[in-house]
Structures are given as C-alpha cells and as structure tokens.
C-alpha cells in the first residue's frame, strides 16, 4: 500500500489484495506516520506499519517539509529513501541548532553571573574619596615626637 509516497505493508493486506471490488478506508495520525490503520470490509481496524521497518517514526509536518525541500531541489517527491534522507538532514540541523542555542544561553548566563559578582566586589572594596573641602591632616590631633641623640 502506498500513502504519501511511503510504502506500508502488513500480512493482513494480503487477505484483500486484488479480491475486493471496492477500496479500503485508511486512517492515520498526523503525529506518527509510521503506522496507518486500515478498516476491513467488516469494520475492524488493523494497524499497518512501514514496509521498511528500519525507517524511524515521522510526523506529517516533517513529511510535508521534506517534500517541499525535494521540490525546491527538483528531485522526485515519491522516492521514499530521499524523503527519509531529507528528514534525517532536517533533524540533524535542528539538533545542532538547539545544542548551539543551549550552549550559547548557558555561556551568556555564566558570563552575566560572573560579571554581576565582579561588580559586587568592586562596590564593597571601593573607599569613598574625601571631598576637597575636607582637610584630613588639619583635623588630626597629631603625635608627639621625641628626639634622640
């Protein structure tokens, strides 16, 4: 069975392949295209997975984005291997960007924390400058000094 350019297969499909005069109903969850559900003529639902079980679960949004990228590149939209290759590329880009973003955010937080701490030390160590009008020596009582010979 082909749906969205992806192949699906389960042994239950062989019961109806070429024997029914009508089509079977197929349902899917857009959050996970790895499994679709086929309704039998009797009304029972059967899960049907990707024909190639090595493929990871994907979302409908990822699939649409991969097809858009393939369309931009002028490639075939129905090539299952290309679709999954593009999805893997996009996932790798997102993972790399999120790790760089996380890394940059942590670096910025560490720097801000360090600089905030340095500012606090400067404020504590700072000695107030005397005003020009004050004469510190004039106000000091002084000390007696004895001469030695």
The quaternary organization reads as single chain
The whole-number mean of residue pLDDT values reads 80
> What is the H-and-E element order?
EEEEEHH
Q: Tell me roughly what share of residues is in helical segments.
A: 40-55%
Would you tell me the structural class of the helices and strands? Answer: alpha+beta
Rounded radius of gyration (Å): 37 Å
> How many distinct helices?
2
What summary fits the major beta sheet?
Answer: 5 strands, antiparallel
Widest sheet: strand order?
A: 1-2-5-4-3
- In whole angstroms, the N-to-C terminal distance is 117 Å
The proportion of strand residues reads 15-25%
Report low-confidence residues grouped into runs of 5 or more.
Answer: none
Total beta strand runs: 5
What coarse outline follows from CA principal-axis ratios? rod-shaped
Explain what this protein looks like in three dimensions:
The protein has 149 residues and is an alpha+beta fold. The protein has 2 helices and 5 strands; from the N terminus they run βββββαα. The chain has helices at 60-73, 80-125, and strands spanning 2-3, 6-9, 25-29, 32-39, 45-50. Strands 1-2-5-4-3 form a 5-stranded antiparallel sheet, with no helix packed on it. α1 packs across α2 (80-125). The mean pLDDT is 80.
């Amino acid at each position: 069975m082909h749906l969205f350019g992806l192949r699906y297969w389960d042994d239950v499909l062989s019961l109806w392949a070429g024997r029914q005069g009508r089509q079977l109903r197929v349902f899917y969850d857009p959050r996970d295209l790895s499994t679709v559900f086929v309704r039998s003529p009797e009304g029972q639902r059967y899960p049907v997975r990707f024909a190639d079980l090595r493929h990871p679960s994907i979302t409908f949004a990822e699939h649409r984005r991969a097809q858009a990228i393939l369309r931009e590149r002028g490639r075939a939209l129905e090539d299952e291997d290309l679709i999954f290759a593009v999805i893997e590329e996009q996932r790798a880009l997102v993972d790399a960007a999120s790790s760089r973003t996380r890394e940059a955010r942590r670096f910025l937080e560490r720097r801000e924390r360090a600089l905030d701490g340095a500012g606090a030390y400067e404020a504590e160590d700072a000695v107030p400058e005397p005003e020009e009008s004050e004469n510190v020596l004039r106000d000091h009582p002084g000390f007696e000094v004895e001469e030695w010979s």
